[in-house]
Amino acid sequence: MCGRFTLYADPDFLEGYFDLENGEDLYWEPRYNIAPGQNIFTVVQGKDRLRGGLMKWGLIPPWAKDTSIGYRMINARSETAHEKPSFRKSLNRKHCLIVANGFYEWKKVDGKKQPFYIHYTNGEPVVMAGIWERWKPILGDEVISCSILTTEANEFMSTLHHRMPVLLSQDKWKSWLNPTGNSPEDLRKKYFRPITSEALDAYEVSTIVNNARNESPICIEAI
């Protein structure tokens, strides 16, 4: 699963990295402890090029009575999302990229949960497969929200947790963002298999990340 992550890459860098059509509109403060329910940076297919923007982390289905359900929808199992009323339509039609520098996972060590920070060995941004949805209340503003798809852990991640985010290589971004005509089996074969273990590295970090209010570069310092 994925319950916390970071994004401290410069918006100007990400504008060029994704060749965004609206990069001049993007700005955010570096984030070192992003938690469910917060706004996160995502990429979708625009009119001509990719387009960046913020979505609320935790998918809110159109039929939900209120936004609180989103806290239980931060992750969607890629193997079964097509069977779930909360995720089925989004999986068919509304895909996004969820961008991070890395993510956290907790492992039980000597009876305590020790946080680890996972990132790409080459330092590139981590691009997670996401699905999104619009929720319109009777009164008030529309909320656009999303979930991170997860898959079985590769050999490296299995030492920390049995699940991991679905991570997409650059050659799969555009096809993921244009999902028309893909069956659940097509999606599984094309996108949902875990990436190779060699692509990832991890190290122990301080337990200050356990509290989402702690937000500083200290969160990603190795201990």
Automatic annotation (TrEMBL):
Gene3D superfamilies: SOS response associated peptidase-like (3.90.1680.10). It comes from the Bacteria. The keyword Cell inner membrane does not apply. The keyword Cytoplasm does not apply. Keywords: Covalent protein-DNA linkage, DNA damage, DNA-binding, Hydrolase, Lyase, Protease. InterPro entries: SRAP (IPR003738), SRAP-like (IPR036590). It holds the Pfam family SRAP. Its EC number is 3.4.-.-. Belongs to the SOS response-associated peptidase family. This is Abasic site processing protein.
